[in-house]
Automatic annotation (TrEMBL):
Domain of life the protein comes from: Bacteria
Occurrences of domain Response regulatory (ranges): 10-126
Residues where 4-aspartylphosphate is found: D59
Species the sequence originates in: Vitreoscilla filiformis
UniProt keyword Phosphoprotein, yes or no: yes
Upper lineage: Bacteria, Pseudomonadati, Pseudomonadota, Betaproteobacteria, Neisseriales
Keywords: Phosphoprotein
Protein's name according to its UniProt entry: Two-component system response regulator
Length: 382
């Protein structure tokens, strides 16, 4: 069935000789929509206006801008670089043909034209272009679907992790806003430290993203602390405090079991990159859970690590957790004034906290307070 005029491909014929334009036009019009240009400059203008050509027949020997120069310009612009070009020329030297093909032409036809050969080559290259276009559209659709599913999986993972962390916080009379606040504090500190020499190599954008996602899991081990200790309104006894101090290990052990199971279940699966990413995330979560109560001077718990032996994600979490505890109301205390919060945190420089993280905090105090305001807890109803 012949194509309707609207469905016919468009051929742009470029030649400085009027007789050649007439000859090629008469040959092609029964099969294609034909546009013509009698110079290289006009050809470049023609490709910028509809109907855009599906293929170009390009003469090589033209005054002013020759076909090679036109080809170079076509390939220099994204809008035109994929249009198939067939050189049509009286030149028949092998070097001329090689030069044209190296510039990106799909074919090279010598004059005098043999109509059947030219029509066959045009048909072949239009079919190839159509196939490439279909494949490109399918690849684009596939990429969009992959992007959508990755984003969907990330959303589900983040929501699941947040829900899991909320279970621990809810038992401790905390709120979801505590998780939001500490997550944002950690991310803010990490982005700042990523610009500093000491931590720039470790704090890549992907690692910062994983640290932020892992931050809400810092107190997940509290699910293993008995209610009579976790919910006690008054001061804990020494024995109760020792039990409370087990929550970093409980959380870290749970995450370690998850890591071991993930590594075992996917050991022979063709998901190496995904598995490594998941294990890297879980390792950050384990570090935060186990070590966010360590202190820079080595007097923290559970492992009495000191200085840079404490993993950086845990050092970030330590500052974020303490700032939130000081600056927000708790059932056992009111929120401290900003000046008092600063005083306590600065006193911990080099003892409780990494000095460079305190320096980052000093540069980010206004951002911290903006986060605290944005995710403020609702006032008590009684």
């Amino acid at each position: 069935m012949p194509l309707t005029p609207a469905a016919r491909p468009t051929i742009l014929v470029v030649d400085d000789t009027p007789e050649n334009l007439v000859l090629l036009g008469e040959l092609l019009r029964p099969h294609y929509h034909v546009r013509v240009a009698n110079s290289g400059e006009r050809a470049l203008r023609a490709v910028q206006t509809p109907p855009y050509p599906d293929l170009i027949l390009l003469d090589v020997m033209m005054p002013g801008m020759d076909g090679y120069a036109v080809m170079t310009q076509l390939h220099a612009h994204a809008q035109t670089q994929d249009i198939p070009v067939i050189f049509v020329t009286a030149l028949d030297a092998q070097d001329d043909e090689e030069h044209g093909l190296k510039l990106g032409a799909v074919d090279y036809v010598t004059k005098p034209i043999r109509p059947a050969i030219l029509l066959a080559r045009i048909s072949t290259h239009l079919a190839l272009k159509q196939a490439r276009d279909v494949l490109q559209d399918r690849n684009g659709a596939l990429e969009r679907e992959v992007t959508r599913r990755v984003a969907e999986n990330e959303l589900v993972k983040e929501a699941s992790l947040h829900a899991l962390a909320l279970l621990a916080e809810a038992r401790d009379n905390e709120t979801g806003n505590h998780l939001h606040r500490t997550q944002r504090y950690v991310e803010t500190l990490a982005h700042h430290l990523a610009t500093q020499p000491r931590d720039a190599a470790e704090l890549t954008p992907n690692r910062i993203r994983m640290i932020g996602h892992a931050a809400p899991l810092h107190d997940i081990g509290k699910v293993g602390i008995p209610d009579h200790i976790l919910l006690k309104p008054g001061k804990l006894t020494a024995e109760e405090y020792e039990q409370m101090k087990l929550h970093p290990c409980i959380g870290a052990d749970a995450i370690e079991h998850a890591m071991a199971r993930a590594a075992q279940e996917h050991a022979f699966a063709d998901v190496t990159e995904a598995r490594e990413s998941a294990l890297a995330f879980l390792e950050i979560a384990r570090q935060i859970s186990r070590h966010h109560h360590e202190r820079w001077d080595g007097t923290g718990y559970p492992d009495r690590l000191h200085g840079e032996n404490i993993p950086l994600p845990a050092r970030l979490m330590a500052l974020a957790d303490v700032f939130d505890a000081l600056s927000c109301r708790r059932v056992y205390k009111p929120a401290f004034p900003a000046e008092e919060v600063d005083r306590i945190i600065l006193e911990g420089r080099g003892t409780h906290f990494d000095p460079l993280i305190i320096d980052a905090y000093l540069a980010l105090r206004e951002e911290f307070r903006a986060i605290a305001l944005r995710y403020a807890d609702a006032p008590p109803t009684h």
